[in-house]
Amino acid sequence: MIIGGMKEKVVKNIEHDAVTGQLNAKVEVNDPIFTKAQQTAVLQRYLQRNGTLTYRFNNHVSRQVAGLATRYFNRRTRFEGLENLAGVTGGAIITSNHFNPLDNTVVRRMVQRTSKKRLYIVSRDTNLEMGGVIGYLMNYYDTIPISDDKEYAGRVFPKFIQQALAQEQYVLIYPEQEMWFNYRKPRPVKRGAYYYAAKFQVPVISCFVEIQDLPRMDNAEFDQVRYVMHVLKPIFPDPQKSVRDNSRAMMALDYQQKKTAYEQAYGKPLTYQFEPDDVAGWRGERMPFAPSAEKTV
């Protein structure tokens, strides 16, 4: 499903950042940029609302809406490796590649099919300002905002993660950070997800979503696609290692598993040399990338 209008500039930004090796950079255009005051206001509003009667009611409604949407959007999604979840009994952090505003529904469908656990989703604080149904879900579904605000990131955010894990629920963290629309390749991962897994002694459920093209038009720029969720071997922290060493080891293993899954799914080695097929379903006009070209964000 295409969300957010035409994607020609986004595809050019993906090509630019792939060529220049900026594989965790922002590529979406016209995303909101907060001032410090706006950031503080958004976080305060979220914290004040969280746990209130109004929030609990809307949380219930949003979970029902998200559940129905998840089944609809993933009616063609295939799941492989679900047996790998057998050894995960308590809370866990889920990691997956990030390529669509609704790719969390693929993970949510996996959770629906295998357990009765809730899925909390870590999302940028700017997403709380989105409008429409997506904005409603961002504000009232089981979303844990992440922010550059040092006070919030250092003291409040970890408590939300710990609380969800202590209740033996799942937390989805995108270790690639930024979303690259329909980008097939797993990108290098950042350490945050693995730090929390090591700190709170929970496993990482390692996932990779393969994107397959369909011979049907979605819009003027893209054909439709379908997904194959590959549930990989869970990664458990070593109780004999420090948080630092554990997080680094878990991070390296998770990236290696995603890399292997990509190579098996697409039948070719993972490189970050940009290819026209890297953006799944793309039918738009391609312009040769010039290294001096500037990004549009």
From TrEMBL:
CDD domains assigned to the protein according to its UniProt record, in alphabetical order: LPLAT_AGPAT-like (cd07989)
Protein name: 1-acyl-sn-glycerol-3-phosphate acyltransferase
Keywords: Acyltransferase, Transferase
Keyword hit for Acyltransferase: yes
Residue spans crossing the bilayer: none
GO biological process terms held by the UniProt record: phosphatidic acid biosynthetic process
Example of a GO MF term: 1-acylglycerol-3-phosphate O-acyltransferase activity
Phospholipid/glycerol acyltransferase domain sequence ranges: 92-212
Database matches in InterPro entries: Plipid/glycerol_acylTrfase
Family matches, as SUPFAM superfamilies: Glycerol-3-phosphate (1)-acyltransferase
